[in-house]
Amino acid sequence: MEYRFEGNSLKSGIYKLSNKINGRIYIGSAKRFKERWTQHSKSLEANRHSNKFLQSDYNKCGKEAFVFEVLEVVDGDKKQRLLVEERYIKQYFDNGNSCYNLCDRAISREGHGAKDPEETKKLISQRSKEAWADPDKREKRLAKLHSEEFRKKQSEKQKEISANPEYGNSAAAHRKRYENPEEREKLSQSLKKAWAKDDGKRKAMASKLAKEVYEANKVSLREASRKACAKEYGYVKSPDGTILKVVNAAQFCRDNGLPYNGTIYSLLSGQIKSYKGWTLVSTQ
User: Fold this and answer.
1) Domain boundary among 63, 92, 115
2) Which of 60, 163, 250, 254 is buried most, with the most CB atoms less than 10 Å from its CB?
């Protein structure tokens, strides 16, 4: 990819990434022009650029068709650069005809070429509110979610996941995704924040779900839970080598100081072979 820094490679400001074959352009801002050019070059060459339209043209036209140019040097901070960038974007934005930018607003991508999380959240939240506020768009979205075609696609995706030996069950998938302690902490904080925001909808949804489950099973939820706990399982070996018969999963966890969660059921049902030093001997 050609670059034209004009002696401003280490300065900050607004740049333009142009396709010399079809004339399409991409407008962006950078803390340092040379670093941003490097980020674009590496992600495009690796076929993982966040802008799929730019990536598609790069794959078709080749890297020789693109040139990185400095439009304006901006000496202010990031907010100032974003204001100037947005002015340029609004000048060229045309819904994808000759401008690669996906929207007419400026979103920071400084720092490893990634989008600014807070800016992205605000933009997604605003677009979601605008979409759901429109009755026509809301009805179309709901119709799509409840359509037979959409459900069929979701079912096929789930089958593909289930067929993958590495993600043979949902518990394994979650363990693989959140094996990093930092990821687990992020998930925990996110869930706590969501459930702490009680505006009445959570209780209404929980109550509705409980009623539906009760009507479907015609038994009390407490009795169903008691039956699940009291179900007889197979044999497991303790960390010290003792073999035990598991009759009640909840009581087994209490007696041995284990957390009572879905992972225990994965162990007892044979989906995983060991957990916290305990090993499955047989499911019968």
Assistant:
1) 115
2) 250
